[in-house]
Every structure is written in structure tokens, then in C-alpha cells.
Amino acid sequence: MTSAKRFPRPTGVVTGNPFSTAAEAWIWAAQLHARALEGAKRGAGHGEPRPCEPGDVVLVAKRLYRARWLTRDQLRILWHYGVLGREPWADSVFEGADHRLWTSALDRLAPALQRRGFVLSPKPGRFGHAG
Fold this sequence. Notes:
Blueprint: H1 22-37, H2 54-66, H3 72-84, H4 96-115
Helix pairs in contact: 1-2, 1-3, 2-4, 3-4
């Protein structure tokens, strides 16, 4: 009789504090992922405990891109402004188009992050919709 290797089973319980918005999650992940690519040590600058690693959020965006839910331009804008640590300015002549791409990308990214427990789901409003 062979001995079976025992692996911990996922509990489905998310530990750490979920992000309040997809933008907050993305900016956090992009900045830490970019630092890791530059050679920063893992765990440096993470701050408070989160329900995911920066790479998890980036992986969700990559999967949406491969499934053609995100365009190359949306992914480029997400990465650019995420590393900068801010959203594009809607009122700027130079960043208005970037803001539209940013918003549409986060509209697609948010539900995927919410399903995984990385971002808080919007609370239903008075009539059953978020707001």
C-alpha cells in the first residue's frame, strides 16, 4: 500500500482585508509587481494583510486579456497608471481617453476580483442594485 501525500485543502475562506475597489487593488498589485520585477524582496512594502498576492491580481487581468475581455490598450493603460499609483485624470485633455479606457477595464476587472474575494462586492442599494 502506497502512502498518499497529503496536501492542504483550500478552505474557501479568504484571509486578510479585501480592497474596497478594483482600482485600489490594481494600483497596489501593479506597484508591488513592478517592484518585484525590479528585484525587490517578496513581502517588502505589502502593508496590511491582503487576501491575495500582487501576482494574483495581475493574473486575473491577464486571463481577462486572453479571453478577450480586456484589450491590449486597456491592459497598457492599467499597467501604466497602476505603476504610477494613480488613476488617469478625467478632466485632463491629455488623459481623458486614458481615463475612459481605465474605467472600462476596471468595469470588467472588478467582478472577477470580487468573485475571488480580493475586492468587496458592492452592497445592494435600496432597490436591489449597487448604488
